[in-house]
Amino acid sequence: MIRPTRRSDTAVIAGPNPAGRTPLSTRLLSPTPSGHCYVPPGTVRYVPLYKPLIFQWAMHDERVVRLLNDYRLLVNKAVRYGLQSGVTSKFALCKHLYAQFRCESDMYSKHVVSTFEVAASILKNYRHRARRGLRTKPPFVKRLFLKTENQAFRLDRKAGILRFPLRSREYVWIQLPVNPYHKGMLEDPGLSLGSLTLMPDRIIIAFRKEAPIPFQPEGLLALDTNESSLDGVHARAGKTEYVRARFPEVRHIQSLYFRRRRKLAKKKPHDARIRRRLLHTEGSRERRRVKQRLHILSKGIVAEAAKQRCVLVLEELSIPKLRGRSRRMNRRLSVWPQAELHRQIEYKARWIGVPVLKIDPRNTSRRCPACGWCDKSRMRVASVKGVFTCPCGWRLDRQLNAGVNILQTALASNEALARAVRFQPGALRHDVVIPLCAPKSGAREEPNEGSLAEGKTEPSPTERILAAVPE
């Protein structure tokens, strides 16, 4: 997972262009929520991207266990001192406590410094929740972990051997279990080492690189996010077509595990400890299986956009408070993984240089792309078998209609894209829907669901509706 860099974290450097880097004004950047970008001339922005590698391991060395306990103790002391004295920054904590911690513990000096960084981040989250008026308790670290920077350890990328310091001139060598994915990342010369997080069951090593310059787009891929599919339009010079990427198994997995958790809760009504453990296990399985399928889908979409050299156009979605709906609908919306899917698409696109455009989704499912008429009723749009019908004669599946409106909004917000792509909604009226991403199922098959595992699906309502539309 790549940690997306927020706009507030981005460093903007004004002045002459150093080292011959491409100026920011010549790049196609991700827009603001309003759909527009403003780039001051002569500015350069360096955006680091991070991607962690997770190695599973079993901790058997007592020296490592002692080190993790000492590290947790120092972090909690730093947090307690910050709460009592009002010191919140990493440098202030280091100034006041470094000498004391060095006398109390024989830990490696780089590990001692990293305790102040962890404590400062914990205090920052605590203050943020307190300012928002949320109920919170004084923070306290319970789990065993250790975080340190790349100056403290050595990694042999070819052999996969990690040399980790415990204290001054005392090291432990760990053979990392390297799979083909790890090997590809370790052999990439463009990736540099970042921080390392040591836990009792895994080791996480972060790699970083500078964000590649987005390519000059030749088309657009506008996608409307729905509960079980991504529907939209692929437009480029002289070619426009409907596209669809399905993921119905995600909703099926969520429904299946909801029923399983409810059944387990009824079986153990009087033992909260066992019930909590069983529900946690089922929830972890559900999240892993849903995330894997979303990773397969997002990887295919980004790869197709890079192959076609298209801008990915997504909606800036925000789910309102779950009020006024049925209990079942509130549950479905609360587990709808649209935010996770967008996050995966955005960071994978940023990793390989595919530009991403976010637009306002307001009225995209209720507006006619041919004449601009907007239906004021949401229920009427969804009542006629999911088909949007306009008084002017335009008739189309409402999900694909939203994709067409998203494409028009993107073209209206970017003059360069509007000149490169010429789009006429009427030319798409009777086109068929082309599968955008149909990856082979690489995830574990669900129990008692043979039809899902074998990929047997009926024709979609959209395909049946489009086939029945008269010429």
Number of domains: 2
Order of strands side by side in the largest beta sheet? Answer: 14-13-10-11-12-17
Would you list the SSEs in sequence order as H and E? Answer: EEEHHHEEEEHEEEEEHHEHHEHEEHHEHH
Low-pLDDT windows of residues: 1-45, 445-471
Number of helices: 13
The largest sheet is: 6 strands, mixed
Averaging pLDDT over every residue, what do you get?
Answer: 79
**Cα-atom Rg, whole angstroms?**
26 Å
- Tell me the total number of β-strands: 17
Beta fraction: 15-25%
Walkthrough of the structure:
- By secondary structure, this protein is of the alpha+beta class.
- The chain has two domains: 291 residues, no CATH class; 150 residues, no CATH class.
- It contains 13 helices and 17 strands.
- The strands form five sheets. A six-stranded mixed β-sheet has the order 14-13-10-11-12-17. A four-stranded antiparallel β-sheet has the order 3-9-8-4.
- A hairpin with a 3-residue loop joins strand 10 and strand 11.
- Helix 1 crosses helix 3 and helix 5 packs antiparallel against helix 6.
- The protein is globular.
Write the layout of secondary structure elements.
Layout: E1 11-14, E2 43-46, E3 48-56, H1 62-85, H2 90-104, H3 109-131, E4 146-148, E5 154-156, E6 161-167, E7 170-175, H4 180-186, E8 192-198, E9 202-210, E10 219-225, E11 229-236, E12 239-246, H5 248-267, H6 272-308, E13 310-315, H7 327-334, H8 338-352, E14 356-359, H9 378-383, E15 387-389, E16 395-397, H10 398-413, H11 415-420, E17 433-435, H12 450-453, H13 461-468
Parallel strand pairs: 10-13, 12-17, 13-14
Antiparallel strand pairs: 1-2, 3-9, 4-8, 5-6, 6-7, 8-9, 10-11, 11-12, 15-16
Helix pairs in contact: 1-3, 2-3, 5-6, 6-8
